[in-house]
Amino acid sequence: xxxxxxxxxxxxxxxxxxxxxxxxxxxxxxxxxxxxxxxxxxxxxxxxxxxxxxxxxxxxxxxxxxxxxxxxxxxxxxxxxxxxxxxxxxxxxxxxxxxxxxxxxxxxxxxxxxxxxxxxxxxxxxxxxxxxxxxxxxxxxxxxxxxxxxxxxxxxxxxxxxxxxxxxxxxxxxxxxxxxxxxxxxxxxxxxxxxxxxxxxxxxxxxxxxxxxxxxxxxxxxxxxxxxxxxxxxxxxxxxxxxxxxxxxxxxxxxxxxxxxxxxxxxxxxxxxxxxxxxxxxxxxxxxxxxxxxxxxxxxxxxxxxxxxxxxxxxxxxxxxxxxxxxxxxxxxxxxxxxxxxxxxxxxxxxxxxxxxxxxxxxxxxxxxxxxxxxxxxxxxxxxxxxxxxxxxxxxxxxxxxxxxxxxxxxxxxxxxxxxxxxxxxxxxxxxxxxxxxxxxxxxxxxxxxxxxxxxxxxxxxxxxxxxxxxxxxxxxxxxxxxxxxxxxxxx
Amino acid sequence: xxxxxxxxxxxxxxxxxxxxxxxxxxxxxxxxxxxxxxxxxxxxxxxxxxxxxxxxxxxxxxxxxxxxxxxxxxxxxxxxxxxxxxxxxxxxxxxxxxxxxxxxxxxxxxxxxxxxxxxxxxxxxxxxxxxxxxxxxxxxxxxxxxxxxxxxxxxxxxxxxxxxxxxxxxxxxxxxxxxxxxxxxxxxxxxxxxxxxxxxxxxxxxxxxxxxxxxxxxxxxxxxxxxxxxxxxxxxxxxxxxxxxxxxxxxxxxxxxxxxxxxxxxxxxxxxxxxxxxxxxxxxxxxxxxxxxxxxxxxxxxxxxxxxxxxxxxxxxxxxxxxxxxxxxxxxxxxxxxxxxxxxxxxxxxxxxxxxxxxxxxxxxxxxxxxxxxxxxxxxxxxxxxxxxxxxxxxxxxxxxxxxxxxxxxxxxxxxxxxxxxxxxxxxxxxxxxxxxxxxxxxxxxxxxxxxxxxxxxxxxxxxxxxxxxxxxxxxxxxxxxxxxxxxxxxxxxxxxxxxxxxxxxxxxxxxxxxxxxxxxxxxxxxxxxxxxxxxxxxxxxxxxxxxxxxxxxxxxxxxxxxxxxxxxxxxxxxxxxxxxxxxxxxxxxxxxxxxxxxxxxxxxxxxxxxxxxxxxxxxxxxxxxxxxxxxxxxxxxxxxxxxxxxxxxxxxxxxxxxxxxxxxxxxxxxxxxxxxxxxxxxxxxxxxxxxxxxxxxxxxxxxxxxxxxxxxxxxxxxxxxxxxxxxxxxxxxxxxxxxxxxxxxxxxxxxxxxxxxxxxxxxxxxxxxxxxxxxxxxxxxxxxxxxxxxxxxxxxxxxxxxxxxxxxxxxxxxxxxxxxxxxxxxxxxxxxxxxxxxxxxxxxxxxxxxxxxxxxxxxxxxxxxxxxxxxxxxxxxxxxxxxxxxxxxxxxxxxxxxxxxxxxxxxxxxxxxxxxxxxxxxxxxxxxxxxxxxxxxxxxxxxxxxxxxxxxxxxxxxxxxxxxxxxxxxxxxxxxxxxxxxxxxxxxxxxxxxxxxxxxxxxxxxxxx
Lengths: 492, 1010
Prior knowledge:
The complex is a heterodimer of chains A (about 500) and B (about 1000).
Chain A: H1 2-17, H2 20-23, E1 30-32, H3 40-55, H4 63-70, E2 74-77, H5 85-92, H6 100-107, H7 109-122, H8 130-155, H9 179-196, H10 213-227, H11 230-242, E3 265-269, H12 289-293, E4 307-310, H13 312-316, H14 324-328, E5 329-330, E6 352-353, E7 373-377, H15 378-391, H16 395-408, H17 420-434, H18 441-447, H19 452-460, H20 477-482
Antiparallel strand pairs in A: 2-4, 3-7, 5-6
Helix pairs in contact in A: 3-7, 3-8, 4-5, 7-8, 8-9, 9-10, 10-11, 11-15, 15-16, 15-17, 16-17, 18-19
Chain B: H1 3-24, E1 28-37, E2 42-43, E3 48-51, E4 57-59, E5 65-71, E6 76-80, E7 84-88, E8 95-100, E9 110-112, E10 117-119, E11 127-130, H2 143-146, E12 154-157, E13 167-170, E14 182-185, E15 188-190, E16 202-208, H3 211-214, E17 225-230, E18 236-251, H4 260-273, H5 294-298, E19 302-314, E20 318-330, E21 337-352, E22 355-369, H6 381-386, H7 407-410, H8 416-422, E23 424-443, E24 446-465, E25 479-502, E26 506-529, E27 546-568, E28 572-583, E29 592-603, E30 616-630, E31 641-649, E32 652-658, E33 670-683, E34 688-705, E35 721-741, E36 745-762, E37 769-771, E38 781-783, E39 791-794, E40 797-800, H9 804-809, E41 828-830, E42 845-848, E43 854-864, E44 867-877, E45 880-883, H10 885-889, E46 934-936, E47 939-950, H11 953-958, E48 963-977, E49 991-992, E50 999-1009
Parallel strand pairs in B: 1-8, 14-17, 45-49
Antiparallel strand pairs in B: 1-2, 1-5, 3-4, 3-6, 6-7, 9-10, 11-16, 12-13, 14-15, 16-17, 18-19, 18-50, 19-20, 20-21, 21-22, 22-23, 23-24, 24-25, 25-26, 26-27, 27-28, 28-29, 29-30, 30-33, 31-32, 33-34, 34-35, 35-36, 36-43, 37-38, 38-39, 39-42, 40-41, 43-44, 44-47, 45-46, 47-48, 48-50
């Protein structure tokens, strides 16, 4: 019996003595933050992550291109009811601080900024190949500048966070940083990136598509253009040209899965069409442009949700003979798309966007599109150069880069002898048609003449209730509630 | 047989009968009969049967049979230990069936309380025991559905497709997080889906409701504990039982949708109001007739069957209970079903006087066609409602039809009957739930028990879609996805129990023990597209793009527990428990949680001064207080980790490592402090029993999402939880059992009602938490300080604008240039609550509480001779339902079909004040979240009516059965409700969105005992 008692008690003690290890359960599918950032592979994996937020629906997969809807190029379309209601509100200039699209644009960049800040804080200390390390730091600076450039244009002053934060950080609830200080940081990051990044040609294999020196220069040109520093824009554009960028012979190649990262591409958002992650997941690797823009409930493409329907005013703005129209727009009587004949009843405006559609033979399902999004391409650089030259008074010289773009579109050179104002009108029209539905139009509307250009345009197409205050989006309500130190933009 | 011959025989028979009748008056005769346990219709042996006012008495044999000489008109006194005593007047019958019940307050009854049992009279906490006697004749696939409405303080929500598990709420919603109670099966805390257990195998179903009862389960006791014990064999002659049941099911109610003509008229009106081209084919809507009833085509009348066979028995040295069952339920929705096979082995062997071993083992295999990974289904009720009535289901060649054309005219819903038939989803599960124990009596009164438990769940999900071409969402590539899941839980419990009576007055029971439990879950998944043939549905046969996935997670819990029960003269009772849990889920700074409780009871009826209160035969006051925890907080909330994922450059896959969630190393359990007072009373010689409990349940350290500013870069949606909020539930529960009539005709009534009020008393900040986002771009509910959990939040609809002047007089809702793009007559007027002249999010408010004010159940059972009738009613009151189907099905702004309620839509000034105008695009956002969709969720349901008949003993015996009972039963007979949707029993958050409705089941069965 004693033996039995002994066995019983030791069984209990065995459990009691236990088993610290028994209770040590760490996640099985993640790495520990304390032992990361040790090797060059860690650095590569960390910088790769910095690109990923660009892909998300909060940025280039949806919200960046839906800005063309509130810029007046198109209407939401979608399914009616509450489908796309946030975009309808934005387009009607009835946006309030609880708008879901606004929240997305605010939430989109900051994860990328965190990942860049982690790289910039940790990678310099890794013992690794210095050329690679410089490139990675350059990529992080380029990307951080891009994320802030998106924020500052949509929201104006936003908190400028340059270090990874924790709840104990002094600026865990930051105030908004004034716009000039944000631009100063953006320009510094881009200038650093220009020095650190290699030219596009040095990237091969699975590095094609990374940030390059040319991308940093072109982005800096766009920043200067936005700030109205036209004199600074011109040499930057010329440096891009000197790096060997050129227009694709075929306009459509910019939007084709067969010609990704083409010669004209300066920086594009990469999509593989992999179905590994859910279509609505932040990690989704499939492009939304084709399924979202396909004429609703048709066989044109996999998905076909009918968003982004061009207005009649936009379609009528094409000059006769513009080859871009058939690439960009589905209209009654247009060439068949992959054998499908377009019918105006597919859309509330009678038109759909064609530019980004991927035929089902290439992308069979809604979640398989591998179409990249052209964030910045050489045609934009040429048009920036033309605009800047005109603004600094060299209107005659400005025609040459503009005509390169027009020639590819099958259009004659612009008439000579235009006044500076007339040339400005022409070049802005050209930007609108060339870069249509690429998320650029809104930024053009709000930057020129302090936004008056945009207001005049919006009023001219019937959005008479748009005010100067509408040119900045509200700080999202959720963030105002989360951070007591934020002030709201006027008018919201 | 010639008529006159038959007639003649009848006459002879009647004559003989009357002769015996006349002759019998005042004569001794032999009454023979059978005594059955009315809980389970099993024969009861050893029952004493005496003729009143005489010394004639016999005892029932092992078949429950007896025969006794008794004068006509005399009364029999039937008694047995544990069953109480009843008087039975056989009348003129010579063959009788006597049902004796364990008295409702049978104080000797044993209740399972966790790591032991207690006599009911010794209980000091709030424990509900649900009778399991009717489990065998209810057409319920699992115990959860069988106990709905049966216990005060235990709410059951049972809607869902076949094989779905019910949701339990014990004493309200204790937390906005996981509020499910812990389920313990035969001593093994199991993450068990309840439907793994055949209800016929369940012997007892006890619910520990208050903290003093559930604190012995420490960090898992906060939401209550359900203790299920399966049947065991008993010494004596072996028993073979057969339960056979067969039934038919149909939807109790189906929402009526517009027919083709009505749809076309609505469509024309909607489009012309929205400045859109109307369909020329709808020029004369009346000619379109009725069209297709899609929802009718999705539903069907479906059969169900249940067969259980069990044998049990035992000797002084051992006992056994073995059963096997098959349950087969076709769903009322096409291609849904639930099929289950179970085997149960329960044994105990008393090997030596001081040593016994035992085991409980349940093996379950089930199959849920229609339910794939992550709840994927082939059918979609909401989309079926939305389907176009003009579109036929089939083309002339028998293939499934396409949407007929322009989505504004014909909608854009893929053929729902097609997808329900063509797409396949399936989940197959194989479960083992078992325990093996040894119990050693070390010295008299002191026992040691060690239990090893295992729960192994293996389940495989599969989804298959062949190529099909019906628009608008054709499947252009065949697709197969499979997922294999393994979920293993191991348990090792050790505890000592000391039970001793000191003198005759001091009874002490002490328990001390340890428990170790750990779990590991793994899955692997794969999917691939492009199958050359639909015949070979194997992952290897796909030729297109493939994906693989897999992951795992673990948890472990190490615990010490103790309990002391002390009673003095059975009059003053004290219970104290403590449990100390260490969990792998807690953060490094909070590895330990200690959960104490104490309760006292006073049996006033044992006091001498109470002796003269003759009508109360037992009265006990109880009071208790305790602390429990909820450790269902996620396995790794504390960890600081970097996620690994995939990205691409130029179509080349590369890996990324990134942080997603801000870590919270301080995370710990949620805590519930609960006080309970109660009264148990038995009156009129236990004819009436009453239990009343009142409680206050304060949840603290409730996990709420941390406030993570977007600017940190960490996800502001997937945020760490912090133990920062509090909630209160308080309520009153009343249970009444009454034996209204006793004797030959019995009538018993059981009634229970539970009132509960739930309120969030604090959140970590003023930001409300939005809940119930169904991916509809809308939050229906909100959690906010001072409000009940998951309260609905939205605009207040205030009738319709009848004229343009009405519109102009009201706050601005939607400006525009014409009625097709702005607020116009016929649109809903939303209240301008902040009086700023503008209808926007500032005008949203709390518009409905999904939590019922009270829930109740009432059973009435009648027996007369061999017949028994049970009528069970159940209901909830005071809750609101958000009818989210109607966001679409009454929006009248798209090409989708709408409910017949839209026939009462506004069509001009004075034509209505509720259902707005039909207008394409809904410029006024009439379909925004508002009181328009809030409906009263109260209902009273005739849950079940069962009529049974037990054949007289002789007839049964002539067929070599010890008893035969046949019955017919109807479940969900009728529901009294104002709710306009399918059924008011929607999910626990009160949102009706594509919910699989409750079904009406008509069944018949037979219980055979050998």
